[in-house]
Design goal:
This protein is α/β, with parallel strands linked by helices. It folds into 2 domains: about 5-20 and about 90-220, HAD superfamily/HAD-like (Rossmann fold); about 20-85, DNA polymerase, domain 1 (Orthogonal Bundle). It contains 9 helices and 6 strands; from the N terminus they run βαααααβαβαβαββα. The protein has helices at about 20-35, 40-45, 50-60, 70-85, 95-105, 120-130, 150-160, 175-180, 210-220, and strands spanning about 5-10, 110-115, 135, 165-170, 185-190, 200-205. The chain has a 6-stranded parallel beta sheet, sandwiched between helices. The two termini are about 15 Å apart. GO terms for molecular function: hydrolase activity. This is HAD superfamily hydrolase (TIGR01509 family). It comes from Nocardia puris. Keywords: Hydrolase.
Length: about 220
């Protein structure tokens, strides 16, 4: 039986919004506060990671002891700094607004599925517009964030659709792994780092020119 496209599930940072650059400022400042040196390898490993996982990756990469107090203080620093940086309009990724309009006009269900915590996601929604999304799922609202499938499974459940009838749109290896593990079809539009090709992944250079036919083709590309 051929899967029917029912919903599009969008990542936020690096996919719809050019906000990874804001996170880059914050995590590099945090690395300085912690007395470590941020390498490109550590920074790349952080892209797409959920809050708790990102802090563990950062502390391990910097060689800094990850005591509970240190992790808590680092998390508070990041939330304050990213909140400051996200105040005001955030730049869109190329073609993202047209892509959201396309999905809305096609009458498809639409969800924002991000590893970013709810308090910070609200800044992103201020730019994106809440009317585009039927629901949103954040990293602090599921048992495990991406690369676990939990955020995508929760989004599909809230929408009342089968994940096999959903197309996820992602920019990072972490998010791509989560969408695939949930059973979603996948369109990958890399932003800050490359995403390796894999069976069932449809790669695009940008969201510019995206059509419903492209979304439907992603369902057939899945193996």
């Amino acid at each position: 039986m051929t899967a029917r496209l029912a919903a599009v599930l969008w990542d936020m940072d690096g996919t719809l919004l050019d906000s990874e650059k804001l996170w880059d400022v914050a995590v590099r400042e945090l690395a300085v506060e912690l007395g470590g040196v941020m390498t490109d390898a550590v920074r790349h490993a952080l892209i797409g990671a959920s809050g708790p996982n990102a802090l563990r990756i950062l502390f391990d990469g910097l060689g800094v002891p990850s005591t509970p107090d240190a992790l808590r203080e680092a998390g508070e620093f990041l939330e304050r700094r990213v909140s400051d940086l996200m105040t005001g309009p955030i730049p869109w990724r190329p073609g993202a607004k047209d892509a959201l309009n396309l999905v809305r006009d096609a009458g498809l269900a639409c969800a924002l599925v991000t590893n970013t915590k709810r308090s910070l996601t609200e800044f992103g929604l201020d730019t994106l517009g809440r009317d585009y999304f039927d629901i949103s799922v954040c990293g602090d609202e599921v048992p495990e964030g991406k690369p676990a499938p939990d955020p995508y499974l929760r989004a599909a459940s809230l929408l009342g659709v089968d994940p096999a009838h959903c197309v996820a749109v992602e920019d990072s290896p972490t998010g791509s792994a989560a969408a695939a593990a949930a059973g979603c079809a996948l369109i990958v539009v890399p932003c800050e780092i490359p995403v390796p090709p894999a069976p069932g992944r449809v790669h695009r250079d940008s969201l510019v020119g995206l059509t419903v036919a492209h979304l439907e083709e992603a369902l057939f590309a899945r193996v």
